[in-house]
Design goal:
By secondary structure, the chain is mainly alpha-helical. Helix content is 63%, strand content 2%. It has a two-stranded antiparallel sheet.
Length: 247
């Protein structure tokens, strides 16, 4: 999303940044190898996430596809992480390792004013530091997703882009989905009310519900109580204690 930069220059910048913050020389050497391969693959091309995806496909095709076990799977994970790191560094100027950020998030140019305005409003509302931090990660993931689809300005976000991003939530807990949807809804409403988008995307988001979790019944029937007593383990001290509490 930022200004065009060659793959060679971007890889060199990232490698220099990694040398400043990374302590594990072996891991650093692995990333250097991937960056060098990507530089050769790209030639004189400018960086884009789609070019990184083409590079991954080419490498895994050479290896006969994805591997889920042994040393080859660890190499593939290194390739994935390196390309993800390159995309984050290009878009936001940060290096994200697990729960640590190296550098301050700089929102991509066309999204900078609207996103900074959104977080200023959120902070003024007095929302917690944890909420703001989680929201930053959700918007960070959204902008990376949009960049991969070639969406570089807020007014180009379509309902279809929105729907495709939501599909990435599948597999999360109901509470996790609700958190992401609430943040997106707040963000999209800010963009719409401030005139950055023309389509009210917030109203096109599905409503989240966390009512699907299993609940314990308030009253146990005799059959349920009998089954629990019969299933209790009464050999170990812990089992005897649990049985005593149940009976």
């Amino acid at each position: 999303m930022q200004n065009d930069i060659s793959v060679a220059a971007l890889c060199l910048n990232l490698e220099q940044k990694l040398m400043e913050v990374w302590n594990n020389e072996l891991t650093l050497e692995r990333y250097r190898k991937v960056l060098a391969e990507f530089t050769v693959f790209a030639g004189n091309s400018s960086y884009s996430q789609s070019l990184g995806a083409d590079f991954l496909i080419a490498r895994f095709t050479e290896r006969g596809g994805l591997v889920s076990t042994d040393e080859h799977s660890r190499k593939e994970e290194t390739y994935f992480r390196c390309m993800r790191m390159l995309a984050e560094y290009h878009n936001f100027g940060i290096i994200h390792r697990r729960n640590d950020f190296f550098g301050e998030i700089v929102w991509p140019g066309p999204f900078r004013q609207c996103t900074e305005g959104f977080f200023e409003a959120v902070i003024k509302e007095g929302l917690s530091y944890g909420y703001v931090t989680r929201s930053r990660m959700i918007i960070h993931d959204l902008l990376l997703f949009l960049d991969a689809r070639g969406i570089h300005t807020p007014d180009k976000i379509s309902v279809r882009d929105n729907d495709e991003f939501i599909k990435s939530f599948y597999g999360l807990s109901p509470k996790g989905i609700e958190t992401k949807l609430c943040t997106l809804r707040r963000y999209y409403r800010h963009l719409y009310l401030q005139g950055y988008i023309r389509v009210p995307l917030a109203e096109r988001l599905p409503k989240a519900s966390i009512q699907g979790r299993m609940a314990f019944p308030t009253v146990w029937g005799q059959d349920e109580i009998k089954k629990i007593e019969d299933s209790a383990e009464r050999i170990s001290p812990a089992g005897k204690r649990s049985y005593a509490m149940e009976t």
